[in-house]
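Notes to self, Superoxide dismutase:
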Amino acid sequence: MKYELRPLPYAYDALEPHIDARTMEIHHTKHHQGYTDNLNKVLEKYPALADEPLESLMARFDTLQMDEADKTAFRNNGGGYLNHNLFWEIMGPAKAVNESLKREIELTFGSFDAFKEQFNKNAISRFGSGWSWLVRNKSAKLEFYSTPNQDSPFLQGATPIIGLDVWEHAYYLKYQNRRAEYVENWWNVLKLL
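result:
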């Protein structure tokens, strides 16, 4: 199976003023395209894996029979591909609030504000590049944490629900080193909550 870069479900400028059009275009057409291309290069070497969904391959990453360099490239680029697909999907110019998810968050974390505060802390305190996540863990319970680089929650057997990209390429043109400002403004374009 050859993976393709999915088109965004909205225009590059649709998330302004919170995320600028130029950042969206570069992030999608350069960074996400690069993860896609490099993922395909690795998988071309392992045709036996072609028909297995990428999420399943990530979930059984430790058992994959690849040489170490390819395994690292698969982890980085496969994660980058999956993480960004979700990232684009959960954002949008119009809210489509998932009331059921919002209630579950409130029940699990005490309040939406408590959840948001910890989610933001995970995003802001991630040293270097990475992601802040809300996932459904192996026990089907909501959990949040941060991962480095392009590590996917699927590596831990979790299903990602919300992921915030805190790599500098996601915000640097508009926010420079002001990650906290980017994180706070991102909630305006998260359509699920």
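- The mean pLDDT is 97.
- DSSP finds seven helices and three strands in the chain.
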